[in-house]
Every structure is written in C-alpha cells, then in structure tokens.
Amino acid sequence: MDAHAGSPHTAENSFPTETTEPPTRMTRIQTLTLISMASVNFSSMICYSILGPFFPNEAVKKGASQTVIGLIFGSYALCNLIGSMVMGKYIVQIGAKFMLTAGLFVSAVCTILFGLLDRAPAGAPFISLCFIVRSVDAVGFAAAMTSTFAMTAKIFPDNVATVLGGLEIFTGLGLILGPPVGGWFYHSFGYEVPFMLLGCLLLVMVPFNIYVLPYIEAEPSKDSFFRLLLHGKVILICFVTVTLSSGLGFIDATLSLFAMKTFNLSSGYVGLIMIGLSLPYCLASPLIGYFTDKYPVTRIGFTVTGGVITAVCFFLLGPAPFFHIPSQLWLTVLMLTLIGFSLGMTAIPTFPEIIACAHEQGFEEGLSTLGMVSGLFGAFWSTGMFCGPIVGGLITQGLNFEWAATVQGATGLLAALLLLAYSLCQKRKQRVQENNQQADENSPLLNE
C-alpha cells in the first residue's frame, strides 16, 4: 500500500519534471517539502549523535571492551553502506515517499529499543542486541536519507546545491545538539530517557511527512551503479567523499582522548571544541551551495580547494611530527574550525556534480537516477565513516594521534590532487577536440 494514499494533496503533488525557467518563489509543495526535509535531517542527526557522551561508559559496565564498542559504532556505518546501495537502486519500486516515512519509523522504533538495552543481561546478550538494533537502525537511516537526497534533487532541480547547503544547517544543528542534550538528559534522568524522547520525536515526524510529502511517479531504470562508476570523475569524487567522511569518523573516534591527554581537558570542554568543527560547516554550506548553483563550473574548483585546505589542516591538527611544532590548544581549535569550513567547500558541490556526470553518461533524468546517485553518495560516505575510526584508531594505537592525523591529511590531499589532474586533462582534451572540429569546418573553404 502506498504511503501517499488518501492524501488531500494528490492533485497538488503532481508537479512538472521540467520547467522552462525557475520560479521566482517557492511553491507551497516546495515549502512544505523543505520543512519536511529539514526536520528529517535534524531529528535523524540528533538521534545519531546522542550516543557519544554516555553510551561507551554504559557499554563498559555491561562487559563490552573498547574494541567491541568500536565495532558497534562501525556496524552502523557498514549497514548504512549496504542499505544506501539497495535503497538507491530500488527507490522507484519502493517509492520515495514510502521509503522516507518507513525509514523514519524504523529509526524511531530502534532508538526507543536502544534505550531499553540497559535492562538486557550483561555480556553476550547485551552486545548482540546492540549490534542488531544498531544495524537495523542504520538501514532505516539509509532509507530516510537516500530518499531525502533524491526527492530534494527532484523537487528543486535548479537549486540542488543551494537547498542541500541550507539543509546542512539542520544536519549540523543535530550533530551539535545531540551530545550535550543527550548528556544532560542522561545525567538528569538516566540512560533510558534520552532515547525515549528522541524516538518519540521521530515517531511524530512519520505522520507529518505522510501528510506533507508529494508522491512522485517514476519508471524504474535499467542503469546500474557499475555504469555510473565507469565515469572517471565520479570515481574520483567518490574517493574525495570517502576521505571527507573518514576524516570526520577519525576525529570522532580519537580527538577527545587526544585533547584530554594532551591539554588536560574535561569531556565538557572537548564537546565545546567539537562545536568549532560543526558550526563553520553549518554557516558555510548554504553560501557555497548558492554560489555553486549559480556558477556550476566552480564545483570542481571548490571541491579541490576545500580538499587541499582540509588536508593541510589535518597535517597541523597534531601537528605532523616532521613539522616539529608542539601541540597547542589554540592551533587545534583553529584547525578544526578551518576543517569545518573546508568540508562545506568540498562536500556540498559533490552531489550535484555526480548528477551532472550521470546525465553526461546518458542516464535518464528522473527519480531512478537521482536515487542511484543518492545511494552511491551515501554508500561511499558510509565507507569513510567505517574506515576512518578503524584505520585512525589502529595508527593512533600503533604510533600516535599526530601520525594518524597526518595519514588522514595525506589521503585527502591525494584525492584532491587526483581530481584536479583529471579535470585539467579533460579540459585540455575538450579544447583539442574543439580546435580539431573548428579546423575541420574551415578546411573546405581553404581547399577552395
């Protein structure tokens, strides 16, 4: 049964797939969709980030080791990766609206169930339930976010980067508020209350989105992820995406311990430092989205420049041992702030650029292609979130935080430079083809 059945907005929800010129004002359905997407981003991210301040400590009490705790967090990213690919491929068959609302419902139920896990017996039962609930939650989250990206690109075809940049404000707010709000409720009311409240918040979003979101008709596509990845630029953009998310995962897993040990900071102050990463990203994303929508040719320039700045900041985050610079709190905070800004420069243009590459490859314009691009983007983002904490943690444990941050920066720099080299080669190739074509057109006149 379709989730849109019985909606009073059925006639209104039929909007044209193409417009001769963009409207000066948003339509009612666009406004409601924007509100819906913002609420999904905010509520999903605050539920995702709530675990950080107190779950590891509770898990240790239940007999979980640090390695197992890391695997519980990693399982979320792994299942999100698989879920993004599957949901992106079958978004038309499932239905974008149903996928989003069903994903929200699954995440809501899993969030509430996670709040009840403190009642599970310690040891293997608790650990097993953590893996199961967290993994199912990741699939629900993948469904909601994949459909959010696809529907945003479908409903705002002329302003994809602008809208996504604006929505990232709410993503950032969810990530910023999750740890302090979760920590405060945990200290005031115990383990269960934060999960219950936020799970109920997600449940409220389900009927709201059923009522508000439009139904989008689309035909399934015969195209595949493999064909999309045949485009060299898409592969390199995905590589850049992996380095971005792995950097964030690395910071989440290692920075707090490094800051506490090196600067003798409490967990509360570490949380404040992390705001230095999220806040610039929130502020920069809408501006970068608007600019790259207005001037699409700047997308690769922004992505490469942001990638290089991010890499340099990771080199100085430790700082790198070969710089022979002592670790200083002000330098760490400054680098996190610059990383937050440069992340917006790099991440926001990538999604619309992959859509453009898909159309260059001959992919039809429609929900099926948008879902495939959304799934691909989500899968590679999750790959980085899975690999970043694991690889960064291993290097930190084997060497130190400074070398781990250096390796992260070097990987990001490599990805940015490869994308730059590819883009320059493509431009040169295009210029040669244009010159040859112009010479062919002029040659008959010369022969006469």
UniProtKB/TrEMBL annotation:
Residue ranges of domain Major facilitator superfamily (MFS) profile in the record: 33-427
Keywords: Membrane, Transmembrane, Transmembrane helix, Transport
Pfam families cross-referenced by the UniProt entry: MFS_1
Gene3D superfamilies with a match to the protein in the record: MFS general substrate transporter like domains
Subcellular location as annotated: Membrane
Lineage start: Eukaryota, Metazoa, Chordata, Craniata, Vertebrata
PROSITE patterns attached to this UniProt entry: MFS
Membrane topology, record value: Multi-pass membrane protein
Chain segments carrying region Disordered: 1-23
Protein name, per record: Major facilitator superfamily (MFS) profile domain-containing protein
Membrane-spanning segments: 32-55, 67-86, 98-117, 123-151, 163-187, 193-213, 234-260, 266-288, 300-323, 329-348, 369-391, 403-425
